[in-house]
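Listing S7. Sequence submitted for prediction.
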Amino acid sequence: MVVKSKRGRRRYIAFSVSPELRKEALIRGLRQVDPDKPPHIIQLSGGKAIIRCSPDEREGTIIAVSRVDPSSESLITSGTLRTIREIYPDLKEKEKKNSTAPAHL
């Protein structure tokens, strides 16, 4: 596990976005923030998005998303993904199918 002092702190920003917004368009827009290491899209579905960035890139990320989707709105910024998913349950991770689990008899 990499310590925060090496990788730096992270911020997670939840957005309300247009349901038609495509991930490719959002990626292109986020490259404007930092072409070498753009903010990372954690989730984009159902008219909501979660994007991870550094604290210094927070404002630039919000501006970049609003340029790609003018109807977008920043909902919350948090230091943890868990907090965002607790406040917005529709952004919770879908349960992954565990292929190694034994079948029920």
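Caption to Listing S7: primary sequence and predicted structure tokens for the chain studied. The longest strand covers residues 11-16. Residues 42 and 86 are 16 Å apart (CA to CA).
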